Amino acid sequence: MAEQGWRERKKTLTRRALIEAGLRLFRDQGYQETSIAQVAAAAGVAPRTFFGYFAGKEDLVFADTPARIETALRVVDERGPEDTVADVLTRVAEETIAGNPGDVDLLGLASGRMDLVMSTPSLQGAALHRLWTTEQRLAGALLRAFPDDLDEVSAAMVVGSFAGAFMGAAGASLRRGDRPDEVRAAVGRAVRHAARGIRAGVG
Amino acid sequence: MAEQGWRERKKTLTRRALIEAGLRLFRDQGYQETSIAQVAAAAGVAPRTFFGYFAGKEDLVFADTPARIETALRVVDERGPEDTVADVLTRVAEETIAGNPGDVDLLGLASGRMDLVMSTPSLQGAALHRLWTTEQRLAGALLRAFPDDLDEVSAAMVVGSFAGAFMGAAGASLRRGDRPDEVRAAVGRAVRHAARGIRAGVG
DNA sequence: ATGCAAAAATGCAATCCGTGCGATTTTCCG
DNA sequence: CGGAAAATCGCACGGATTGCATTTTTGCAT
């Protein structure tokens, strides 16, 4: 847990500086309109250095998702004996919502990422791709947690219908201009719908 | 319906040449590894001309989807009086499958696109983004077709769960290396599952 | 404190996508 | 045949990435 020293500390410091500078610039002047050179300059490093921290422009925007994904997977892995597939996925969804609609507070930059992604096509694609690969991992974890109730395809199908309902509702609610709590409610309804659908099919 | 003359004819001809050349090169040497310059050269036009036909490299890969999307939307618009939401979406899915898993035959280049997309991250993102925007349009059409049973959010949620289940099943089946007919079967099962889930919730 | 080796930050060149613009060539039509 | 409109081209940028060689920093053992 303990960091080595100045070396490590400085690295996470630079990383954070890049994220904050990037997110701020993206929000203020737009994603496409902001060049990596600007982000690097604002963070006080050379443009080339940016790529030592992130694989690309998109990566900076989703810098906090890996942790959230691990959390979601852990929820599945820690399935209780009495839990059903729907129970577990519902809990995953709740866990996800807890730090999603209307928030972000990534590094002090509360909100903004949702709007940013929703208003930037290329980021939408990136976000959906991450969601897609995450769904696959989630399906794998689910299959491991319920080996008697599922198979590869049904696991992926269940996760897909869940995520699909979730995203569909969230997207529509946001597009409609709902308040954060309304979005939460909409998503909650979608999750319950998906859970009901699953119970009607798989154990 | 009738084309003007040589002008129009040549245009669609060049367009087709670009698509065929592109798809062939993408399949043979990979998407990322193929430059637009190569595609243009193979089609006998200047690189700059490529952008007169497609907005970008990705567009070429999905050149046939617009038509398919229109078809899907039409299926929703032509809802029968007795149809339920699940009925309509099931029909949309069938319509979609009819020309999807294992095929493509876009322009004689049977198969290959599915594999191409599944093996190219950036194309996956593009494909998912197209799916996402299509879902929105589908939700809109569905809302128009069932104004008494749905609202914006529930329509999007229903479409999302449907598409999610569809994609999840298709992806898992393909990833597992299933034969085209097996993929079809898996998707069929997913569609029935999603339909059941919808019937359990919305009318 | 000093010097060396590993790690990080840079600089630079090169490739490729995508776009604006002006110059050319084709095709259409009177 | 003589434009006018449409389609191609060529050219020059701006910006994302990447590979490679060079220069700074930092960690650590004398």
Automatic annotation (TrEMBL), chains A, B:
A Pfam family this chain is assigned to: TetR_N
Superkingdom: Bacteria
Keyword DNA-binding found: yes
Gene3D superfamilies, per database record: Homeodomain-like, Tetracycline Repressor, domain 2
GO molecular function annotations of the record: DNA-binding transcription factor activity; transcription cis-regulatory region binding
Domain HTH tetR-type: 12-72
DNA-binding region: 35-54
InterPro entries the record matches: DNA-bd_HTH_TetR-type_CS (IPR023772), Homeodomain-like_sf (IPR009057), HTH-type_TetR-like_transc_reg (IPR050109), HTH_TetR (IPR001647)
Keywords, alphabetical: DNA-binding, Transcription, Transcription regulation
Stated name of the protein: TetR family transcriptional regulator
Taxonomic lineage from the root: Bacteria, Bacillati, Actinomycetota, Actinomycetes, Streptosporangiales
